[in-house]
Amino acid sequence: MIIDAHGHLIPPDLLVTVRKESGRLPSLRLIEDPAGLALAFGDAKPSRPISKGLSDIPGRLAWMDKQGIDRHVVGGWPDWLGNDLPPAEGEIWCRLINEALLAAARSEPRFIPLAAVPMQDGARAAAALKSAMADGFPGAMISTLPRGIGSVLDAPDLDPFWKAADETGAVVHIHPAFDAGESRVNDYGLANGVGRVSDAIVAMSRLAMSGHITRYKDAKFFAPIGAAGLPFVVGRLKRNHGITPGTSDPAEALRLIYTDTIVHDPRVLRFVVEMMGADRVMLGSDMPFPIGDHEPQKIVAEAGLKPDQVASINGGLAAKLFRVS
After folding, report:
1. pTM (predicted TM-score)
2. What is the mean pLDDT of residues 41-60?
3. Is residue 22 a part of any domain in this protein?
């Protein structure tokens, strides 16, 4: 079974629901843009207009058929996770997302959904995760920035969420944010080229050095894009650990992280596999975004890996991690 472990989906039902239920969320503003619906959460900047590919289920299934992909793990859209809403509204918003994703997966079982949780409030996020796991979600997709620019995932008041992830064995896909507040990546397409990686590597390094990854080791920490570059800097982080009292061993943390193949170069994928092991790497596309890998099996085939490594990456590991029967 071939499983793509990294994709995004906004079910059409959610677009209907958000227009109908927006009155329940006073801090949510709808912007009907000709290019697609955009949302403004609280005082944050409006999202980008939603692209057609995010909610085109027939198109996504056709792409899966063309690429020989049997199952597709899909979270929502990081722009629409709603972490800038007041906590109570964030809880409602995540429930609407999860209802739509669960309905889409029941209608089309080839989709494996990841839940949204209100990370602006650790206790609410914990409750939402436990509820989602009880409903059949294998985990959640969260942003590197739980409360907008400058916020961190190792904040003490988020410990209830990490404890819930540990207790339930949830997969937690830690996805880069669209805008991490770094203005130097606003030119040359670098927000996509390196901005996502620089954002994610800081978030994951904090979780590693703070001890979260080893403390909550029954949670399944998923960091996309070759573990957000951690295999390349783990030696430097290890050195930093040696000279910085009170930090945890990043090499031990790296051994517990899962990642995907979205590195766009077979040589880099070989390096990631060498550093992390094929039992930590899964096929990924980031569909429907242009920066993703829309022929994801190709890089695995070109990386010169052993047949058992290919089998694990292309679906064996994901079937276990996401509880695919």
Report:
1. 0.97
2. 96
3. no
